[in-house]
Amino acid sequence: MAVTLNARSRATFGKNAARKLRSAGHVPAVIYGHGDETRPLEIAVNELERLLSHISMGNTLIDLRVEGAKATSALIREVQYHAVKPMILHVDFLQVHAGEKIHLRVPVRLHGTPVGVRDEQGVLQEVLHELDVECLPRDIPEGIDIDVEALGIGDSVHVRDVTIANVTILNDPELTIASVTNPTVEAVAEPEADEAADAQPELVKDRRREGDDSE
Question: What is the pLDDT of residue 133?
């Protein structure tokens, strides 16, 4: 389901113009797409931050409503943040068309507690947190849900095990998404009692001999 974001066309450019825009509570942005002209925009920072706080950024379809123009369907391709301050510097939008397939990444969401974790003290390891997919804009999934309840120790879920209606997964089918493994316990070797007792006298004797030679 698409969410709505308001925007305005931007007529000023450059670093100084961007600083003034941010000080006025707006963020510079651009929208581009296959065969479409790149358009500079500006967005109210409070509205943008509110949107980003409750969407999955890379795969949520946005109904971008530009003042004085027709609404456009878009995806957020990149958000640039200040290196130190909690400030959004710039946003890139990708315009999408209803009949054109797009490539994007969708988050993996694991559900349930594996039997190997619950009953056998195993460890659930999530190897892939996102999958690359291709689909039409109307078929973009919010996430890829995988039930791991039945996994025992040594069991895995691979890309080949996942199917989504009207969506093509582009990752290698043999890649592991998640697995349950044995708990890792590091054994610490302890010296035997006789060895520990003999170590110090030998060291003292060696040092005395070295001292005698030096004199």
Answer: 96
**What is the pLDDT at residue 212?**
42
166 Rama class: left (phi>0) / alpha (psi -120 to 50) / beta? left
For 112, phi then psi, to 5°, come to 95, 165
120 and 166 co-located in one domain: yes
Tell me, yes or no, whether 130 and 155 share the same domain.
yes
Containing 201, the helix (H) or strand (E) segment is helix 193-214
pLDDT at 171: 97
Its pTM stands at: 0.71
Cα gap 93→27, rounded to integer Å:
13
Structure confidence at residue 7 (pLDDT) = 93
For the record, the structure tokens of 19 come out as 């600083």
Q: How many CB atoms lie within 10 A of CB 44?
A: 16
For 73-81, which contacts have Cβ atoms below 8 Å and span 24 or more sequence positions? 73/2, 73/97, 73/98, 73/137, 74/31, 74/33, 75/102, 75/104, 79/52
32 exposure class (CB count in 10 Å sphere: 0-12, 13-18, 19+)? middle
Q: What are the average pLDDT values for consecutive 10-residue runs of the chain, which has 215 residues?
A: 85 84 91 84 93 87 87 90 89 91 94 95 95 94 95 96 96 97 68 53 44 41
* Amino acid in position 83: A
Run of H or E including 178: strand 176-181
CATH number of the domain at 25, please: 2.40.240.10
DSSP bridge partners of 38: none
